[in-house]
Specification:
Rossmann fold; 35% helix; 21 strands; 17 helices; 24% strand; 2 domains; single chain
């Protein structure tokens, strides 16, 4: 086996990312590595690529163990990331041979570089000229360039992380043709994707991870879409129940690639996998990015050009990245809480606004927000918008990175707001959270709605069926 991992364990802080995982891939084989968000796929591949060292277990590449990314590359392992790391200002040939260019008399030998890069590019097809500026290529051509770079390093194992995420159907089909050719030439490949139909089409064997553990392996010829969904979903025990709601007044109407009517007191979920476009919908509704949706509030059309327009209409956004987008970490807790409600920076105004939420959430004031836990920081973000009494609350991954108790506290606040008549949209990649909080959910994939699920249908399996299609 060119790549074999045995009994791999890895923890980050108090979180166990991998629990005794075995994984291998043989020459001329494409193995699909599947798992939900947080299952441990990326961590396992980073260990194989030398980015992380395992806490326990072994990594063997033709009998040797990498101690760094450079070591893994030397041993023939190349990680092709979803977000390609390329030098856009250089030409294609320079990207292919970046870091190991041919030199003559101490300077880069351009004729030799283009000749060598051209030979590698011929292996991946697509008639890409090595002298072409990289920025002028299509996403599919950039993907081929990245694979050519790996082959220029004599890669024996390719680790492909969501390789079709940014590709058109035509480019994806061309990529599959290339991967089949590489398989015939003895290259071993690991294929990570949430698109289960692709996995069924291109792989020879499938390995499933769940919560850091390997839970299943089967030949692809024995797999079906329903079988993969079952393996990925497992069982979900919902211990929390969303508050009841009647069909009251419509607060928000949205039409476009995602269409829905949101009622007062309703919690609507936006479900889907990473990269499905959930965050984009919320950011458009809050004016953070150009809004391509038709929006009505209270039955009247609303043009959202910027966050000020959205706030004036009664919108509030709790962003996914609370540290960099939801808070000013160096600022005092009380000033963070008061900031959206202030017209002037007056100390007495700050405390008057902040005190109810400091007391309610039992947050320690008087110091910077950076000194608080992730759960308390998230309560500040919620509190600062509650102080404005919004009509529509947009929550993007509201409990990401929180422990069980902090997550429950945030859920309780969301339910209280819904019970008070607020209209709420919750975007989450965790099916369990959607099921615990929401009255219904829209499942997104590739930026568009794939279906709507009612309260009784909110399960891992049903969400995956729409999201991974």
């Amino acid at each position: 086996m060119p790549l074999a991992l045995r009994g791999v364990e890895k923890s980050f802080g108090g979180v166990r990312a991998l629990r005794g995982v075995d994984f291998d891939v043989a020459p001329g084989e494409i193995v699909g590595l599947l798992g939900g968000n947080g299952a441990g796929k990326s961590t396992l591949m980073k260990i194989a690529a030398g980015v992380h060292q395992p806490d326990a277990g072994t990594v063997s590449i033709d009998g040797q163990s990498p101690t760094s990314p450079a070591d893994a590359i030397r041993l023939g392992v190349s990680l092709v990331r979803q977000e390609l790391i390329q030098a856009e200002d250089l030409d294609v040939g320079s990207n292919v041979l970046l870091g190991h260019e041919p030199h003559r008399f101490g300077i880069i030998d351009r004729p030799a570089l283009y000749s060598r890069a051209g030979k590698v590019l011929a292996r991946v097809g697509g008639d890409i000229d090595p002298r072409t500026p990289l920025r002028s290529l299509s996403p599919g051509q950039k993907q081929r360039t990245e694979i050519a770079r790996a082959l220029s390093l004599d890669a024996k194992v390719l680790l492909l992380d969501e390789p079709t995420a940014t590709l058109s159907e035509t480019d994806a089909a061309r990529l599959f043709t290339l991967l089949r050719d590489l398989r015939k030439n003895g290259i071993a490949m690991v294929y990570i994707s949430h698109r289960l139909r692709e996995v069924l089409e291109i792989t020879d064997r499938v390995v499933c991870l769940r919560d850091g553990e390997r839970v299943a392996e089967l030949p692809t010829r024995e797999a079906t879409l329903d079988k993969l969904v079952e393996l990925l979903a497992g069982t979900t025990n919902v211990t929390e129940v969303a508050p009841p709601t009647g069909r009251s007044e419509v607060v928000l109407s949205v039409r476009g690639r995602v269409s829905f009517d949101l009622h007062a007191g309703e919690i609507l979920g936006l479900a889907g996998l990473v990269g499905a476009g959930r965050s984009s919908v919320l950011r458009e509704l809050f004016g953070v990015r150009p809004c391509g949706l038709e929006v009505k509030v209270g039955g009247k059309p609303l043009s959202i050009q910027n966050p000020r327009d959205a706030m004036a209409a009664g919108f509030a956004l709790v962003p996914e990245e609370r540290g960099s987008q939801g808070l000013i970490l160096s600022m005092l807790v009380e000033r963070n809480l008061a900031l959206p409600s202030l017209h002037k920076f007056l100390l007495e105004d700050e405390m008057a606004i902040a005190r109810p939420y400091i007391e309610r959430f039992r947050i320690r004031a008087g110091g910077p927000a950076s000194g608080l836990s992730g759960g308390n920081q998230q309560k500040i973000v919620l509190g600062k918008w509650m102080a404005r009494d919004p009509k529509v609350l947009l929550l993007d991954e509201p409990t990401r990175g929180l422990d069980v108790r902090a997550k429950r506290d945030v859920h309780d606040v969301v339910r209280e707001l819904a019970a008070a008549g607020k209209a709420i949209i919750v975007s989450s990649s965790e099916a369990e959270e959607i099921a615990a909080l929401c009255h219904r959910a829209i499942v997104l994939a590739q930026g568009r709605s794939r279906g709507e699920l009612g309260r009784a249908e909110l399960t891992d399996a049903n969400i995956l069926r729409y999201a991974a299609a």
